[in-house]
Design goal:
The protein is of the alpha/beta class. Helix content is about 40%, strand content about 20%. The longest helix is centred in the N-terminal third of the chain and has 25 residues. Bound molecules: nicotinamide-adenine-dinucleotide. The site of nicotinamide-adenine-dinucleotide has 32 residues, from helix 9 and helix 10.
Length: about 500
Amino acid sequence: MVKDILESVRDVNLYINGSFVAASSGKSFENINPFTNETINHIAEGDSADIDEAVLAAKTAFKGEWGQMKVKERLSFIYKIADLIDEHIHEIAPLESYDTGLPISQTKKMVARAAQNFRFYAEMVSSRLVGDTYPVDDEFLNYTIHKPVGVAGLITPWNAPFMLETWKIAPALATGNTVILKPAEWSPLTANRLAEIIDQAGLPKGVFNVVHGFGETAGASLVAHPDVQLISFTGETTTGSEIMRNGADTLKRFSMELGGKSPIIVFDDADFDRALDACTWGIFSFNGERCTANSRLFIHEEIYDAFVAALKERVDNIIVGDPLDEGTQVGPLAHKTHYNRVKSYLDIAKEEGCEVYSGQVPESFSTGNYVAPTLLLGADNKMRIAQEEIFGPVMTVIPFKDEEEVVEKANDIRYGLAGYVWTKDIQRGHRVAQAVDAGMLWVNSQNVRDLRTPFGGSKHSGIGREGGYYAFEFYTEQQVIHVALGEHHIPQFGKKK
Ligand code: NAD
């Protein structure tokens, strides 16, 4: 069945105003399989002309049927999209693995979460998209309402494409905006499948549009377009800065979910085995291409040797394999360019004086972009391999002596996305978690998400929060209405006495 799904993959068009169309330039680009580095198919290469078309369609839809639709009817479309994703998990997950190299056992869960994103936001809008009232004695009743903003530009990365796209599309549509998605150029297959699903769900034309293409052309045109009111971006920190510069002239509203280099702090009193499981999963799942990965391990010196020995054993035994095999735990990286970048950090680690300890990649996978699970041992927090986001299955390991030292080191970095603390001392758990400068902390837990809570980073890891009703801040405009209930005083300028 999976073979049939992959063989049925055709070239991909843009999805604009309810139709699948070629790029207006007629250009396309190659989409490469990270397992074989062979061409999968060709993708229509959208540019500013296609963005203009998509924005016009989205603007028209916003002013038309979608903008005037009753909330209940709008949300019925959102539930319908969720149901259709669930019905097609067994087809979308292999496509995602084929396109990105992510192991199939993990993409199945990511696609299930994508359906949940739509259901969750339909529920949030019906229960929590509410305003406040401000009664002023018997003189005024002031109240707020949330209105959709208009045309939303959503720009997404390749590391967990389907899940991350839906994490933006669901709140944007559920709150009543119209959308233009610019997916990452390395992972276009499931964005196209999503367009087909949304088309099948029967949303009015122009409500949802997908313009494939490169960041510097299609992405930049979306950011600069005067009729796009907001840009939700997930990707690298440097790209985020550039997007903010390019959107300044049109005063865009931005949500920025950026890079990370998150610490995991394991104290000597931690539950050793559970901390080991969490630490291993947190860096090697999603092939290490995970924004919240615990890529800096701080391990107490009392347990350093035992913990590193146990980690080495895990690294030796992780199953590196074909992303489409159910048993695979680590697959190839998404693209050759990224592979070369990750590999370069292994050389940097050696130059910086670390021991580089890697597992094995079976020889039969030599065509793929494989980086074996790797530990960079004996590192110092000042090193480049401790400060820069590597975004692969590579963990920097740093010993520490005490709480004060580890908090200082954990915070001595430009990123602030996530952090993890392992200790049986409940007071220390809270204390250290609160002292780490990052948006999201987990104590004695792996990265278990609660969709109601705010998701996002501080420092160079982001601006704003997604998740829960926090997304309403971004995807809606708050309006306040002041209503006089009685005859309050109005100065009578110019009135003859
Ligand atoms: P990237 O910044 O290279 O690209 C992301 C998207 O931006 C792509 O669609 C790309 O085409 C587009 N883009 C590039 N230049 C642009 C421009 N000038 N104008 C408009 N769009 C442009 O990021 P990536 O390599 O695809 O993704 C990996 C990064 O994403 C990592 O840094 C990772 O930490 C981060 N990430 C963050 C989160 C989070 O929630 N904080 C989640 C996932 C990934």
